[in-house]
Every structure is written in C-alpha cells, then in structure tokens.
Amino acid sequence: MKHKLDAIFKPKSVAVIGATGRKGSIGRETLHNILLAEFNGKVFPVNPNAQVIHSIKAYSTILDVPDSVDLAIIIVPKEHVAGVVRQCGEKGVKGIVVITAGFSETGKEGEKREQEVLKIVHEYGMHMIGPNCFGIVNTDPKVNLNATFGKTYPRQGRIGFITQSGAMGEAIMNTAKELGIGFSVVASIGNKADISSNDILEYFENDPNTDIILMYLENFGNPQKFTQIARSISLKKPMVVVKSGRTSLGAKAASSHTGALAGLDVGVDALFEQTGVMRVDTVEELFDVASALANQPVPKGNKVCVVTNAGGPGILATDALINNGMEMPSFSPSTVKTLKKFISAEASFSNPMDMVAGAGAKEFKLTLEAVLKDKRYDTIIPIFVPPVTIDQLEVAKNIYEAVKDTKKTILACFMGAGFGSEGIKYLKEHSIPVYIFPEAIAKTLATISTYNNWLKSPRGKIKNFKVDTQKVKTIVGKAQADKLDAIVGDDAIEILQAYGIQSVGYQYASTASEAATISSKLGYPVVMKINTPQILHKTEFGAVKVDLRTDDEVKKSLII
Q1: What pLDDT is stored for residue 260 in this prediction?
Q2: Strand, helix or coil at 33?
Q3: Which residues 6+ apart lie within 8 Å of 280 measured at CB?
Q4: Same domain, yes or no, for 199 and 256?
C-alpha cells in the first residue's frame, strides 16, 4: 500500500467488530452492505456471542481471526471501543473506522474517552476515521467497499465526497443516485479525532479516480493546512463546499453534533476565495454545481445564450444570468441570417432566442446547431416548456444530437416537465445536466465562474513581513491559559498590529454623551459596537451601529 490511507480506502481484508444478525442494527446493516457491494477482499465478522453471521464464520475477538486484517470497522458500545482498538493494534490492523458515537460530541467525559482511544491508535501506528461517523465507500470495481450502514450504494463516478455529518452523507448519496451523479470515494469523518478532512483531501489530490471534490463541513481543524492543501488541489481539481455553522446558533449546534467549533463565517469566505474553493449555501446548490462539473466542461468565459420555446422562462433566465454576473451578447448577423431560414418570423431573433410555443424537436435542433457556431458564446442553455402536443423525449433527443460534439458548456432546463420525464432522464443519461428552473443554472454558472476567474488569475508571490511573534505568542498563550473561546478587543487589535495590519482608531465609552464627545474627536462617520467577549456575532444581536454621522445619531444609538 503506497499511501497511509490505502488500508482504509483500499483494504484487502475487513473485520466488522460488532457485527450481528439482528436486522435493523448498525452491526448487521454494515456487514450486509459490505457483502451486497461485493467487496473484493476477505470479510471477518467479529462477535463473541455468535458463531455464524450472515452465513459467514464469526470470531470472538479480532485476535482470533487467522488471517491478517487491513481495516476494522468498529461498532461496539462506547465503553468497549478503547479495548477493541487496542486488540486491533495487537493484531496489526493498519486502519480503523469507529462508527460508535458517544465521544467528544457529548462533552468532557466523551472527550476524555476519545483521547484514550486516540492515544492507543498512535501507540500502534494505526490510522482512524471517526469516531461518531457513518462509514466509508469506495466504488472502484477493484475494491467495491461499502462500509456504511446506509440504504444506498452510490453510483460509480469521479467525485470524492467528504462529510462531517453521517446523516448528510447518506442523504447526499441517496439524492446523488437519483440525479445520476456518481462518487469515487465517500468518507464520513465524524469527530475527525485522527484522520481529518485535510488528510483525505491530500489523498484525493493524487487519487486517479477522483476528478472533483465535494465537502460538507462544520469546522476546520487546521485552517492554515487546509489553505495550503486546497490551493494546490484547486489548480487541478474543482472543490465545492457546503460549510454550515454560519450563525452563532448554527455554530453551537455544530459543536454538540460532531464536537466541532465552527469558525467566524467571514473568515471562511475569505479562505475559500483565496484558495479557489467554490462555496455554496445549500446542498441543493452543491448538487447543481456538481452535476455541471461532472458532466460538462468548465465554461471558458461568462457569455451565455438562451434558446427557448417560451418567452417567460427566457426573461427569468435573462434576469437571473445578468444578476449573477453573466453576459448575454446578441447574435452575430450570420447567426440571425441562418435562424431566419427555418424559424417563424414571429420569433425573437435576439438573446434570449424565443422560438415561440409552436417550436418543437426540429426547431430546437436547428437553432442549437446555429448558435453553437456563434463564437460569441461559452455556454448554451436550452429551456423547454413542454406543451401537450410536443413529445418531450423527442425534443431531448434532438437537443442531444445538436450539442453532442460541442466543446461548449450545455446546461438544459425542462420547466414543468416533472421528475418522471423521459426527456429529462434521456438528457441525464447522455451527460447533459437538467435543471427545473433557470435561476438554478444562473447561480451554478456564477459559482463556476468565480472558480474559472481564480484559475486565470496570476498566482502571485508570497511576501515575508516583519512580525512581532513574541507578542502574538504571549497574547495567544494567555487566552489559552484562561480557556477563552476567542480573542477580542485590545488583544485582537494588538495581534493585528503585530502582523502589520492597519486598524482604525477606536476608544471606549460608557455613556451616550461620552460616546458623542469621542466621536467628534475621532471624526465622523463612526461605527459603534458593544464591547463584550460574550457576543462574538454582534450583528445578530443588533449590537453594531454603522454610518453614524452626528452627535445626535450617536446619542440615540441603542447600544449604550
């Protein structure tokens, strides 16, 4: 095995410790999924209370297994995990996946339990995913591993997926299968006590089966390392991330969910922007972008043409595209001349191209062939609203025939066709993403455009600055000793200054009159913020007042 994680993602043998024959139990479903996926290796159920599970000989402990074991899936009560992990170490197991919950996500006792397990993992030189995770998947036919307790084995594809939430992992795999999106590797990392998302990103970077990376994150364990890894990967493979914990309540929920401490969201946006990572707000948008990236080339630019048989959707698409930074140039004279040969004179020979309601399969094919030759466009969007008189499948077939040889990006929209549409199914089977509404296409193109612009931007040079490292270490050390969750106020300003980052002038006030006097001296306009470490996300509590321009406005502020 060439990589430390090959024992986890490409094992030759797997032991399921805690396997049972009881339907509905995690131990039974995990073992069942491994067998159902036809894992290309040896499988060893481990349970001291069973001799045979799922028609396979079971062993009392992993130490009783006669063969070597690469990967152990651990599904035992939390009190027994440490002992089982030690047995795995004694056995010479290289990788473990701890599905069992009840660790750092539950509080101090759980954290203590997790540290005990981690110490044993390091003692024996093993690598661990989890605890408190959903499991792992590798769809490579040479492996065929589905070590999860979910209901779905995803399609084989070229997308690597990392999730910090097991439930989100299962939901995304289920939906992806319905949308025709396939995965190479799926990793649910849970509390990421040992193996983190950064470790798996490094694995994906050199994985020949992974071309695109999707992530669901609740926090960053090591943002500095993530920045270095993500910047390197984004140059070769697109990365799309849903980062939860945007609000203070969301961050609090993340902490209780997987033991994660969510960072300030503005910092996350800046980090993604600098590393070329595409951030989306919802899982739905994650699928929209993933579908486009997995099936179509990245657009060379932001110039778009819309071809439709209905005026309303064309207008909706235009508004959404322009509002999202896309451009919609008019047709070249030669394109208009070609279109007039077969399209009704009642049609609109502009962009969007409205072929009117009577347009069917033939008109879509001829129109698309014409606009594809127009060098003004990078992306073509066929929008079809199906009348009763027109065969959806026939339209889909003609759309595909028109665009099958193009190197331009094609994103289709079938409005009102229904999820069971044969036309939509046909296009998806032929690698043309289909969206229900044009606004989703516009948002998808805008997201990909930011990535495209990042790729084209100069890489720049890393500059070195004089930094008062000792001052920063002193401040951070004191904050850690005091067990503070954040560094704010004067200490935060001092850190910025130590790094040569300019900060605006400020003073403290305890009364409205004092605030007005200080504001006059500083010079208007001013910003007022509440000064308390307990409130980090001040805007959520109305604790920030901006653009105050007079003494009277300052005095009337509700902060003081």
Answers
A1: 43
A2: helix
A3: 240, 241, 242, 286, 288, 289, 447
A4: yes
